[in-house]
Amino acid sequence: MDVSSLGGPHPQRGVGVVAPFDFALDRELWRWVPDEVSLHVTRTPFVPVEVSLDLARLVSEHETLGEAVRALGAAEPEAIAYACTSGSFVGGTAGERAMCEAMVRAGEVPSLTTSGALLEALADLSATRIALVTPYTASVTGALEGYLAEAGVHVTGTADLGLTRHIWKVPYHDVVTMARMACKGPADALFISCTNLPTYDIIPQLEAELQIPVLSANQVTMWAALRRLGTRAVGPYQALLDPGARPGAAGLDTPALQEPPALPDGPPAEGGSWT
After folding, report:
1. Could you read off the pLDDT of 130-178 as tens digits, one per residue?
2. All structural domains of the chain with their residue ranges
3. CA dist list (Å): 264 to 94, 136, 174, 180, 249
4. What is the pTM assigned to this prediction?
């Protein structure tokens, strides 16, 4: 078949993504993106520091952001997303706003961060009490709680793994266990932090089990970025993406696509904690 008469591919819209140097979940980001949108992903320069508040500050410096955004400009994205939770909450709510302003100055397109997208998603769900799951150390998790408190969001329970490296290797089993442990009391939603923590496939089953919306770092980032384009993120049985799947709607009572495995209660591996 001669395809030359077809006139070439359909016009493609774009979202630029700035991620930390150790980001390993490009494929997961793409799963939320509709076919007509491309992701243009770049990374911050490598620094020999493990996951910590120090690393969060290094990968979110305005000069570093500006260079990454200018590099993405060649692909002419319609929005820029900074895909790192800790890097965007380490400076508090004022720091997050300043990061967005720095990216807008560098790229002259709408810009957002993962932590800002989280607050946007919580507002969309009218959620002010959340359970929190992180792969971080206690100090990094505490900084996220502080960021949320600044924004008027109360954390009802937390679970963390205490990891400083190789977060993308955490299995779904451990994330589900943390989610169950974090949901101790009444909460409007659950947030699973860190863009390097895999979450896409477990969101529907956790929502079916816990009966609250479940948000993750990559999910809220893509949801907010695609909103800037006037389009929607894709993902089955996810309350943030589908109002019909929210509490009180018939969709939330739909059984999960796959029943979760029988998982043990008890302490996590690698020195993490359920608090």
Report:
1. 999 999 999 999 999 999 999 999 999 999 999 999 999 999 999 999 9
2. 12-274
3. 40, 21, 10, 10, 30
4. 0.89
